[in-house]
Amino acid sequence: MNKRCFRTGLPLVLALALAGCGQGGEQPASGGKEEEPAVTEPVTLTLYSHLAAINTEKDLEALFGAVRKKLPNITIEQKKGKLEDMIAAGEVPDLIATTHYYMNDIIQLGLVSDLNEFVKRRKVDLNRFEPKAIEAVRSYGKNGELYGIPYTLNYGVLIYNKTIFDKFAAPYPKDGMTWSEVTELARKVTRVENGTSYIGIDPGSPRTVGRGYSLPVVDEKLGKSLIDTDGYKSVMSMMKRIYDIPGIVDPKKNYSYGINYFMKDQKMAMFPSWIAAITSRLMQLEEQGQSFDWDIVSHPAFDDKPGIGREIEFQSLIVTPTSKHKEAAYRLIEAMVGDESQTIMNRGTNLTVLNKPELKSEFAKDTKLYDGKNLSGVFKVKPASIPATTVYDTKIYSFLGDAMKSMIVDGADLNSALRAAGENADKYIQEVRSAK
Hints:
Layout: E1 13-16, E2 43-50, H1 57-68, E3 74-79, H2 83-88, E4 95-99, H3 103-108, H4 116-121, H5 131-138, E5 149-154, E6 156-161, H6 162-167, H7 179-188, E7 191-193, E8 196-201, H8 206-210, E9 218-219, E10 224-225, H9 230-243, H10 259-263, E11 268-274, H11 275-287, E12 294-298, E13 308-311, E14 313-319, H12 326-336, H13 339-347, H14 357-360, H15 375-378, E15 382-384, H16 393-408, H17 414-435
Parallel strand pairs: 2-3, 2-4, 8-11, 13-15
Antiparallel strand pairs: 1-3, 4-14, 5-14, 6-11, 6-12, 7-8, 9-10
Helix pairs in contact: 1-13, 16-17
């Protein structure tokens, strides 16, 4: 990396390019030709990562390295701290990277601008993108506004420990399995062997599992929660069947184990997760010499939703309304979603946001992590639609988690647990509305 691209003693700075997007083989996101002169003056763009996993120089290089040579006049300076403090100090960044789940945070702070004019002027073809991502990001614009451009994707996956299945002579998971089939498989590999407890699966939270049904938790128009509904009753009922497997809930009433129990302790047979999460963890294990015999299959589907996995997650770039360098920011985004940049990112550790199955099949190819693995199987299920999000969601999902705990630990019946959670959620919504 060119060391002249960094300023010593300052926050991490990554030099990026801004010579025309059509040079050096990089096509604009529209696939057309450059219609306007490139920005030629040196520009520093400030970037803030709002829970978008851009924390280090390595993260920046993985995302922006492909466009750095294309846009030599742009420098990206990463800002860290609290957004509220930056707003108070009048130091709002030019760009904010965030995930779909947390975009509402940025909207509530008034840090979004409409990118429709940029998309139209630069002929950015949104049909090239994963349709569910564009559908979701557009859902935030109540009057058709487009507040962000997706640049990388996350996909649901089921990873499993082959050694545990071999130990208990159980068949490996397959692509296209339903939750009922996964539950029965988990029953075969939940055992105590020589004093060691092996857990068949940790399905995750009701929030994540419910995404296969595209379930929201709030009807914003009515100001009511949607926890105590048939959809969540189906989710919780399915999850209870998993927790009813002898040994899944330990003697101390622990029923949530997490990714470390699978990756580090290696005592869990199956774990549903995001492909980005397992990719980064598996690479760390390999670097530490602690890898194990694993493989992956598609994310489980509900019995009445065959072939539909969990929703996708994605990260977007937002241009703030106060930015003095909007054109440079636009050109940077345009380059990031171009074919060449997406190909290079995808062959690293950032799954492409483009709707190109042949490109997804090359995910992480440069890392060799998935050589000999069932990577293509992950994409054999379609992602569920992304449920509408609201500003109430984070708190209300905690009430849903309380209902699960009440059911599993305290023995409450499903209907009573969800009814109590729904009442708490409705009370919270009204408190927030009254305070406005």
